[in-house]
User: Fold UPF0173 metal-dependent hydrolase PDUR_06175 from Paenibacillus durus.
Amino acid sequence: MKITYYGHSALLIESPEAKIIIDPFLSGNPGSGIAPEKIRVDAVLLTHGHSDHLGDAVEIAKNNDCPIFAVYELAEYCRIKGAKVKHMNIGGKLAYSGFTVKYTPAVHSSSIQEGDYWIYLGEPGGILLTLEGKTLFHAGDTALFGDMRLIGERNAIDVAALPIGDVLTMGPDDALLAASWLRAAKVIPVHYNTFPVIEQDGAEFCNRLKEEGITGFPLKAGESVEI
Assistant:
């Protein structure tokens, strides 16, 4: 499993079975380093509906004639925008084209602004993505919550993508505890340094992970790691 980071919370996952992108906030993100039309995937996965996660999902899905996986209300929003979708919800699992997606809880919010109105887009979620016999947990935007222990107990997580930006999600201290509860041997910090309010030191966070026996990857946009 090859994982490439495209800034903020966007991850491209590649294996011989499938290519998948999660939370593709690319064109609106000056740090992504790639244009959405360059993305070639078999599926788009969304954790929630905020614009810095929904991003270019509809465009990418249309360009690739592939589905967007999302919690029901967000999936419906994407369907209305013209994308193929797979409607899911928290706790549900779906096997598709060589990989499996399962949604977990996340403690956050999910909506998008159109004109003067905010549209509710269902509950936020985390994503357990299993392919090539390995499992990635993308926590989405979330606070620390106790059931992360249960997620770690019930799933053999090879790598976890955890937000560390603070203010809008959990910060480094809580993310460090989350990594332990999730029993993740490897962690990719996400959702930091895109905007001034979420500036953090990813390398320092990974140093703290190392002290706990966890390998951290403070990837820069465009960098990859093989799991």
Observations:
- The chain has one domain: 2-217.
- The mean pLDDT is 97.
- The two ends are 5 Å apart (CA to CA).
